[in-house]
Amino acid sequence: MALNGKIAVVTGAALGIGKAITEILLQNGATVVLLDVNENAGKSLKESLDKQHGRERTLFLNCNVESEEQLKAAFQKTVQTFGGVDILCNNAGIFDEGTWEKSVSINLVGVIRGTYLALELMNKLTGGRGGVIVNIASIAGLGPFACCPVYTATKYGVVGFTQAMAAASTASGYGIRFNALCPSLVQTDLSTHMLDRLGQFSHLADTITKYADKGVLNVSEVAECFLELVMDATKNGEALVVTPNFKKYRTFPPLTQ
């Protein structure tokens, strides 16, 4: 998939992984709609990007993925401004075992909500252009982390939802590819404060410390893997694992009949 002229929507776009993904999309020719609850950071990034790429290449919208109304309005504004949606990155997420319901709401429900709203616009069966949806999961979505059961559960959910949507799209003819990106620890504000947000599992903080000692990704490494999942038309239903030491696609056994 060549990105010139493509319209991308990125949630949690103002900082960290979302910012890096926004930048790499722009560098490769896409137009990007930035969605984030952090209005100050979003506007600041928009101003910076305008200087590099021109005002017409980006749009920032203050949007909470927990709000059906706000997210729907954001997609409507995207279509009104740019004519459609070709790429969605469901990136918005938090890490906080102390507020587990909010974690589920943002990390999993927000992904499902964003996907379903985008599906209405992208589905070839209903007049859309097709495209690709990449959901940012985590290596915690492929193996249990004792210190963060809820975060683990949300990311397992994202991986499973992504694969099921890929199968549904193929079987139904939606013309949309679905992939999940599963990075290990990434140097972001989220990871910086992880030890303070373990809730009742704070006594297991050393498990994160030991894991971090093996290496931490930078956001540009994650963005490059995201780009691979977007541009490689053969990738559908994939879970791409990336760590400082390796990158590989996780294979899953087929369901038994």
Mean pLDDT: 95
Going across the biggest sheet, name each strand in turn.
Answer: 3-2-1-4-5-6-7-8
Q: What Rg is obtained from the alpha carbons, in whole angstroms?
A: 17 Å
Structure summary, number of beta strands: 8
Beta fraction of the residues? Answer: 15-25%
Structural class: alpha/beta
- Number of helices, counting only DSSP H or I runs of 4 residues or more: 8
Largest sheet: 8 strands, mixed
Task: Output the helix-strand order.
Answer: EHEHEHEHEHEHHHEE
Portion of residues within helices: 40-55%
Silhouette: globular
Distance between the termini: 34 Å
Low-confidence stretches: none
What does this structure look like?
- This protein is of the alpha/beta class.
- It is 44% helix and 16% strand.
- The protein has helices spanning 16-27, 39-53, 68-82, 100-122, 149-172, 189-192, 205-212, 219-231; strands at 7-11, 31-36, 58-62, 87-90, 131-136, 176-183, 239-242, 247-249.
- Strands 3-2-1-4-5-6-7-8 form an 8-stranded mixed β-sheet, sandwiched between helices.
- Helix 1 (16-27) links the parallel strand 1 (7-11) and strand 2.
- Helix 1 (16-27) crosses helix 8 (219-231) and helix 4 (100-122) runs parallel beside helix 5 (149-172).
- The chain starts with 6 loop residues before the first strand and ends in an 8-residue tail after the last strand.
- The model has no long low-confidence stretch (mean pLDDT 95).
